[in-house]
Amino acid sequence: MSTAQGRETPAALARPAEVEVAIVGAGLAGTSLAAVLGKSGHKVALIDPHLVHHDEFRAEKIGMKQMRVFEKLGLGPAIRPLVTPMTDIHVFRLGQLFQRQRKWEFAFSYGALVNGMRQALPPQVPLTVGKVVEVSTGPDRQRLVLTNGAVIEARLLVVATGYSEALRRAVGIERVEESKAHSLSIGFDLAITPQECAYPAVTCYARNPADRIAYLSVFPIGNRLRGNMFVYRTVAEEWTRAFRENPQAMLCELMPEIARQCGNFAVAGPVEVRQVSLTTTREHRRAGVVTIGDAFWTTCPTPGIGINRVVTDVERLASSYIPAWLKTPGMDADKICGFYDDPVKVATDKAGMRSSIYAKRITIETGLEWRLRRLRNNTARKLMILGRKIRHRDALPTPSVA
């Protein structure tokens, strides 16, 4: 296959392949799980329509909590070379510098991260390139037929197909839309390098709820300076079209307090937009099949908790469930439900959904309760900004009298 030309290599299996676990979807969730299970000695088939993951605007940062989980799973050596670490983030609120956060964050391009992890897969877990066209499931065996007629049989099927619906529907799993077009994620490269920016990284919150903007995050990915903005709008709005046409003018108007330090928001390349809906799942408690990551629930990226759900699913399955399931016969629904009812998973999923809903309400809701909450929060922030300025003034040396 020539990756430069983007051609796909079909799976070439001479006879039905028998594995313990078949994972469909080689994004971050599926690839991570396959790597961990493979290193533990399990026979795994990782299936995806593409040998090389295409460029895709998805999550572009994780925190130290998620990195520690990757390290715990033994994936740290594969991930560390693919991320750009940062520890100093200037946070602007109400048009002023609010605080400097000293915390670890790690930035990456999603496609590059996934491709790097695929290349680091253990030899015993090759990527099978193909699309599932037939699937049958049950309490003992799961049978997958690919486009070229190849057959894979497994004791367990893991659905890690993200937003794709074809396999979920074939299995009988339904997606439930909780909040349609909940938010919009916008990504772009700035025309200056990280070295030319006044800040190592910056987060700037919108001042006016009527703008329907949560915040802008500016951070380095390698030698690129990347901008991610999260707004509560839709792709079809005139505002979105206007932003795509002239992001620099709109950003300079919306966030003048950091424009100059960020190269006056000159943008290099196209603006990428991704609409996000909040969804849950039903009819997923069935024998032989487990659904993870965005194939199970989708939450809003604004609170920054989406990858936390992914790594939680991978860690719980790889550490506490799949190895134990494979030690005993069968793969009935009771086994599978143990994962769905896992207290850590349940708490993580619910926290992600709760944070997604709250972040939108506290940003744009016009009801009295939410206006009072914003007033309370902003009053406290103004006092903190004032206190910082007073401390800074008092720390200045007193001029000596000649």
Automatic annotation (TrEMBL):
Keyword Transmembrane included in the entry's annotation: no
InterPro entries (alphabetical): FAD-bd (IPR002938), FAD/NAD-bd_sf (IPR036188), PheA/TfdB_FAD_monoxygenase (IPR050631)
Domain FAD-binding: 18-319
Protein origin, superkingdom: Bacteria
UniProt keyword annotations, A-Z: Oxidoreductase
Protein name: NAD(P)/FAD-dependent oxidoreductase
Originating species: Mesorhizobium montanum
